[in-house]
Design goal:
A hairpin with a 2-residue loop joins strand 1 and strand 2 (about 100-110). The chain has one domain. The protein is flat. The chain contains 6 helices and 2 strands, in the order αααββααα. It is mainly alpha-helical and about 190 residues long. It has helices at about 10-15, 40-55, 65-90, 110-130, 155-160, 185-190, and strands spanning about 90-100, 100-110.
Length: about 190
Amino acid sequence: MGRAAKSLALHQLHGTQPRSKDAGASRIGYGRPKFPRDLTPAAKTEFKRIVRLLEKRRQITEGDVEAIRLYVIANERYVAANKKLEEEGLVVIYTRVSNGETFKVEKKNLHLEIVAQAERTMMSQLKELGLTPRSKDAVKQTSPNPEAQPVVPGSMAALFGNDLSGLRVIEKPRAPIAAPTSFEEETDER
């Protein structure tokens, strides 16, 4: 039987690094992904929603842009194909031509396969991002944002938040100070 794992405080005291997989935050720092330019307005809204979810969990990095982009594109395909599937139904009558004769054939809707593939892609990307119930604990939190500074109680940031656009600086007019013209004049006055 092995010995119990050291706590993070004990590792810090001894100056060692924990080797366990779930030891603290990720070494990868916080970063907000750049917004892809090729997304439609509906996809942009979904992209922002996923980024906000990951920011709340402190699990977002700049490298997540492609995983989120793939999820958003698959989601867009899913919505479009699912709409057609609801309009046409699961089973559709297709017209086939064989030896010059036309036949009506009942087959499963072709959009059903598109919906299923989009669902698989979406689920795969959600697992990668840690947004499923099973994978949420497997994704580590990023290290704290070095740019984020604690808000001082009573400061302008605490009172108004991040939006300080409505505030303006009022400068008081200052009386001009006459500077001495030479070193001799300065010593004579004293």
